[in-house]
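Input for the complex:
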Amino acid sequence: MSETERASAELGGSSRAMPRVSRGRQPLDQMRILREAIGFIDESGLHQLTMRRLGHRLGVEAMALYRYVPGREQLLDGVVEVLMDDLYRDTLRDQPPPQNWPDFLQHLAHGVRELAVRHPRIFPLVATRPPAAPWLRPPLRSLRWVESFLEGLQNYGFTPVASVAVYRAFATFLLGHLLLESSVGSDELAELAPSDDIAFVESNDLADYPLVTALADLLSEDAFSAEFEDALEELINRLAVLRE
Amino acid sequence: MSETERASAELGGSSRAMPRVSRGRQPLDQMRILREAIGFIDESGLHQLTMRRLGHRLGVEAMALYRYVPGREQLLDGVVEVLMDDLYRDTLRDQPPPQNWPDFLQHLAHGVRELAVRHPRIFPLVATRPPAAPWLRPPLRSLRWVESFLEGLQNYGFTPVASVAVYRAFATFLLGHLLLESSVGSDELAELAPSDDIAFVESNDLADYPLVTALADLLSEDAFSAEFEDALEELINRLAVLRE
DNA sequence: ACCTGAACACCGTTCAAGT
DNA sequence: ACCTGAACACCGTTCAAGT
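Predicted:
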């Protein structure tokens, strides 16, 4: 409801007045700023995002952003909130509830994974920003999402105690599996100059690590997808004992 | 070996010359800078660490640091490297190998957890900085550590394929369980001004979330330790099938 | 050999002023 | 009502200069 208000405010208000600014610019808007920030980070990485550059991208000086956003930190919180709200819509609000609880968890897990894969440079924010409440567990950090998640579990017959345990185990699982996958997918490695790094305490000479060298091919195999599916099934099996 | 060289260089060199600088300052040193940076982050948080302030803490202008460290990013990499090397010493190099592989994994898991608990503000760096090789899996991101880990597993009878699978599952487990625990312990929430945050798309009114409200006590219970131990045992059980 | 001063190109943020 | 210019207090980093 409150997001609908805000979204409509974007088009409402001075419905007829054309902007006096040079190009056909609608006035600034909180949601437009957040969406633009998401696009910016997706394209250029978090490190490149500055208030000044984001303003430029919106055709405005940086100072104008402060009318709509309290500061850079809160802007990043807002970016995370928007993506979590999209996730809520896509996986919970607008979906018919699955037939059974394993399908429910499967569906949600794949939804979160898709978020991580679609926004690999933002997912680390979702995973590591301090959440609004201390008992929220990233990446499942939206109050609305958690409310809906717990409600779903109880409908499938989980007790309150069990559903909280499921929430924790599920969030921990997703964090472990997806944070790594997303940071590999984000070329965050390439964001630093390549051979700029220096060995401080540890040799970087592979000859010093014979086993690692011998297993290089095995270690380099991309196994994220299979690991995720296997571990998800194991998790679900394990959680079954919590259900009455 | 190479770290011993560096460590001795700190005391060696001009063994008699007293510094001409005002206070009794030994000349700067890469390891001293890194250790001081670790202390700084532990006390004040990553956000407070600037080259200028770190220099000040070392009794020196910021520019002097660049003789020993290529830049701020590499300084942070160095911080992570030093802690991982301490971990390697404490958990692998100077330890008699445990009797069996479950004890081996238990011992290592608790070592990594202790690192996370002792340096809650640095562990997120260990968990999220781009590793030196793309197949390294934070938080188990030291080449030396991984070499030793794989060697250990093979001595307990794991095949190469199985030991790589164990490495991956183990790292994923630790990342999921410890990143969250450390960020709760780090008061990172308090690093931001308290009521400064603003709701963008989502209501922050708890009345909108009846289930969450009803389960507030359950959700707030600190269960990290028990969860970690339980999940670790389950992981070990699950990994047993990989062994010949 | 080791450190500093001055400078450069940036930041985030505030606030009076413009339209 | 909405945006900008100018300013403030910072950054990381380079490099010639000091001792």
